[in-house]
């Protein structure tokens, strides 16, 4: 096993997601839905997990989302540490009380659905979530070190839960957190009850809390996340007015990929920047180093504004999320002088 079965089971949705307007709403529902009362212990347990983690091979960003019908949740976004722009999947966490105990409820979006990547950097772009549309994966029973002021917990499946994964038909999961890190241990069993795999193979998978990628917010409200910055100090810094060659993908916040140069049959995009582009690109691309990957979270006023782009599936007043990889930047050819 080269990655967590939990991640495979929870995060297997396609990156090119279809819109799911009934699950994610740009604005809260017009009809108020009763929210559960605030439970201080459960709130502190969520805060204990929230943040960025890495085990050297994979990274997780747990960030807060609001629901219209179930209070706070955490959305966990998994990616490879060396390819942070490629999201492998998403999972949702919430602590609940039931049957006299505390449980860590794990859920996922319906198959083929997810949010745009990287919304942790612009929570104002995150659509309101409808918890009633989620697929619940499992409830893990939680043990805390303190009911009043928890600083660590252990959550485990109650017995074995069903799964179809690499000859396993059942599995167990244990998740622990203490504010500085998170551990994950999983074991798969075949139909005869024999262990078929263990993740990680050496025992406990430890993810340490780490600093998030660098985030810059411009005076205009553009949010820039530098995902990959070339380590070579001699890497060329692009300048406004140059010809830029870029690979890119663009999403609306509800996870709909409306365009990508990486689609089959497509080529990198070359254009002069600033140019006849959305203002978020004109502001956010110049200054990148060649070889860098940057995420642009663009508010509607720097995108397509109130008109949107209906033909591309972009609604009015929508944020846009672009991942851009700068392949090259060259000075534009000088304009020939006017003939007398």
Explain what this protein looks like in three dimensions.
The protein has 340 residues and is mainly beta. The protein folds into 2 domains: 206 residues, Lipocalin (Beta Barrel); 117 residues, Chitinase A, domain 3, CATH 3.10.50.40. It is 6% helix and 43% strand. The chain has 3 helices and 21 strands. The strands form 3 sheets. The chain has a 10-stranded antiparallel barrel with strand order 2-3-4-5-6-8-9-11-12-14. Strands 15, 16, 17, 18, 19, 20 and 21 form a 7-stranded antiparallel sheet that branches. Strands 1-7 form a two-stranded antiparallel ribbon. The longest helix has 10 residues. It starts with a helix and ends in a 10-residue tail after the last strand. About 7% of the residues have low confidence.
